[in-house]
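Batch manifest, entry 17 of 40.
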Amino acid sequence: MSERNVRESARSGTERAAILLLTLGESEAAQVLKHMGAKEVQRIGAAMAKLANVSKEEVQGVISDFHTTVDSQTSVGVGADEFLRKVLVDALGSDKAESIIDRINIGRSTKGLEALKWMDPRAVAELIRLEHPQIIAIVLAYLDADQAAEVLQLLPLPVRSDVIARIALLDGVQPSALTELDDIMEKQFAGKSTGKTSVLGGAKAAANIINFLDPSQENTLMEQVAKSDEALAARIEELVFVFDNLLELDDRGMQELLRNVASDQLLLALKGTDEQLKEKIFKNMSQRAAEMLKDDLESKGPVRVSEVENAQKEILKVARKLAESGAIALGGKGEQFV
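Output type: structure tokens
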């Protein structure tokens, strides 16, 4: 494998998309970014800012691969759907790409809801706090999980548990309902209804949002959900990605995660962790780093359980962001979770 191929294989889909956009020039790149949502723009923008040591050869390789994909996947009016799907999946990951493809396929423009993705969570919470819990549930299901979690934390506790249960029970939303919701958010209609159900909500969507909550809030929320529906709470908990699920990471994924985690945070997170997970982490560090971490764990005194949980939650947030960028693949309780 050539040096260029080695570098390219180490690049995530987001990084390769960033390289491609940087070669287009400001005006053309801006036109492309206009068609992306807030999180996609932020993710690719961050990748652009962090790019370093990109050789001319690597840039040419990315462009060449793009041209090859275009030539093999589409021509005018032929194979465009498959081409669009492949490019979006490569750039944004499967979940995010499917969300965007769904919006395109059902022929609508959710301007009001899309605008919420660019707003501060406090502003979103203020905007929807007096709405019916079902409307709040649809709004949060439409937002990215991390933003939805921030908004959820700003709502009263009884509303939170009601809303998370409604998200878990959502089985798609008709485009006409989303159009009406856009009218509420923006006072204007947003596209035509094709009758196809939009893929929003479900237990997995609820679990994704819960993954971004603080541990104390997560526990309280799940207790409230369980009080009203134990089976639903169990279904959600099955899909929540927990710290022990990091055992499912392959060695390359674990090494990538460890490169992005602060050593003091890792030290806290490993206090009281299962020995099997500790060994997997030690195995994916240099011998010297592993020995130092073991020594630090032995010498560190007692720490609050809340500190350990918070450190683990922060590491899980890093893991999810890496998964969304395509750098690692997460699996939780037998299911793909990216």
